Records
---
Amino acid sequence: MERPATHWLAALAALLLLSTLACGGAGSSTGTSTVPTNPTATYEFWKGSIPNSYYSLNIYGDRALQVTGKPWMVLKRDPITLQILDCEFGLSEVTQTQIPNANNQPGSPEPTLAATSIDYYTNLQLDTTKPVTLCVGWGAKPTLVNGVQNFTFQVGSSPGGVGYNESWSFSFLSSTMWGDVTNIDKTYYLGIDSDSKAFSLMKL
């Protein structure tokens, strides 16, 4: 005696469900994960509204040139761990002033760029009529260390095997950040220098 059509439909539906589970459907370990295996990095934008300063040193290690502008930063984070992977940092609306020093030796002017040459300048709302300095560019920072609401790294290089010439340190809360830079090249003084917590930024 043949089964009613409804029984065949029920049996077919059960077979389809089993097939789906076996081929990576719901509950299968071979299914597509909700966490991407190669997640795209996320970016955060920070900017200061008040001019901050750092100093270019002369050959004697004196602070000889004051560079002033509004700080900006782009942070690159791992979207899963939220660890900071890289950053870009500089000042916008830059002015440069030679300052008196013990050896009466001027500092070399800092190179500047057009604001439109900076990645994400529109996100940062940079004034495109004024120059910017790029203090820290994108690139490998093997010394970057993530702490608890802070990160540090060293960049730059000096001749003669001196190594890195600048040490950077930043601390942050949910919407505020502050940081500074220290010259660590005591031979050629090719790094830049700032006061403690010289840079103050807000998250955009």
Note: The mean pLDDT is 85.
---
Amino acid sequence: MKRRFLLIENIKEPIILELQKQPHKEGYITINKADLANNIPLKLRKILAQRGLASNEEIGMKTNKRFCWHRLVACLYYNCIGRFVHHIYKNSLDTNDITNLIVVDEKQHKSIDNDKKNCIRRGLKIQKILKDELFKQPKQTLANNDNIILKILKLKKQGLSNKKIIKKLKSKIKQTKIYEHVKTFFYVDDFLKWLESEQNRPIHMLNEKTSKRWRKIIAFEGL
């Protein structure tokens, strides 16, 4: 029996929550909303609701009834508000990793479902478009220059406040970007230690101990 967990990081006390599957007549994996609401911060619930945990934000914030596991997975990558989360391989409704999910509008959803001959091909084509947009490389600027980001993180590790970092680097990068980088690299100390120890290792060595499901995510994200 598969077990399903929600891991919440980048907070002072990380949360690992096991979510219990509830039966659904159409075969989807559903979870009790109250189970989620009682165990994660309200701020995070709002983010998930705004990203499309349910069809709209109001429904997403309610604690009654259930939500679909595949919507939770998809909304971590895509904005799913008002959209359908479509399984590319329909015979794998229990395969709810992101490699099998795309987001489409109602018309597309019905059209693909009715096109039995080409449904998988069309789904994979849409997935490529979504991935190209999702992982589009930003233009190289000072704001996303690796050396500048590393400088910010090293200053943070030294114990400097965000305000002092801004004062030091204000001629090179906007303060909003500094806040963004500090927020992204929440575990600054651990990240810099990892970066120092791993910088000369080939990328495949970082992934060698991962499970099958993690390997799918790594492949999807192109790491």
Note: The radius of gyration is 20 Å.
---
Amino acid sequence: MNEQEKAALLAAGHRRCLLPLENIIDEAIQKKAFHSAEYWQHQYNGALKMLEALRLITGEECDARSEEMLSRLLRAQHPSAYEEEVV
């Protein structure tokens, strides 16, 4: 598989898999449906692992995307823990 084919598959994977899951998670967070958001976070991680197994993303990119989504969820669940200190 050449780089152009890989890029096309990754774009399709993002459009068809990751983006819908990101939207579902964001919607659950907005509704404060954190249990649902956590469930979809696990599905999102699975989709990332699939892209990694297909060698469309690196392990580092997989981890970074997973951590970013988890951070969004945790910030919504525990906003006071993430407030900046006022000096």
Note: The mean pLDDT is 91.
---
Amino acid sequence: MKNKLIILTSVILIMTFLPDCFPQNKDSLQKGSFYSITLVSGKTVKGKVMSADSGYVLLKTKQGLNEIETHNILNSKKLGQEFYDEYFTENRKPVYRNCISLSIGYISPSEISDISYNYYDYSNVNLNNGISVSAAYSGFFSRTIGVRAGLTYSRMSNKDDYIMNYNYFGTGSSFRKGGRLSQFTIGMDMLTGMLQPEKKINAYGTAGFGLGVANCGVVSEVYGYGGEYDYNPDPQFLFSYGIGAGITYRFSEKTAFQTEAYYNHVSLQEGFYRDMDQFIIRAGIVFYKF
């Protein structure tokens, strides 16, 4: 009798403290819990029970969904916290926190109403369309709000044209040739919209400002009486602000194609060039990190 009591007590203790060591009834599988299921064939599969009835068990494993017929189940064992942690580490959705983007684009400046330099006033001086190259780093606060900091270099040549000039020699016409406007800007933008890089397509809006330097280059003036003078303006400080919108299309896990349209207003110091609006269309590649 004493030996029977010792055996019974041992069995009760083992069942109390080590319940996972014993097979569980396949009919007791709980939806949302994690199990190790041993099949009649001897194969073992581990995962999360998505649904279970008398005929089938749907198990989500690291390899995907696995539908198991209940008559093929030999036994099952509920898994502990260690497997939970491993499962969610392997199956979590990627949360992208930042990215780097490189792009090149087309910049179209508005007409400049006039130029003032060294006591001379000139009218109808304009710029040709040019190129704009940028590199930026973006950080996401959430899946709808982010911030972007970047460097942009833009270059536009002057239009060669006859212009009217007004100065202390009187009124006359001259031919202007050469010259260009180069801009180097450090900018900051706020991003809002769909910032979910794991999705195929995202659309967003942006608004921001920039500080930088404009280099005007050498401009030659050929006057009607045959004289010629070269202007070499000093670099100018510039301030810009603007708004834009863009779309990204993901073509691999961590890279996407980006296209963006941006309207920019540029304010320059008093000098050879004046304030202007610029419209930029650019495209490039985004490299996501997380």
Note: The longest helix spans residues 2-17.
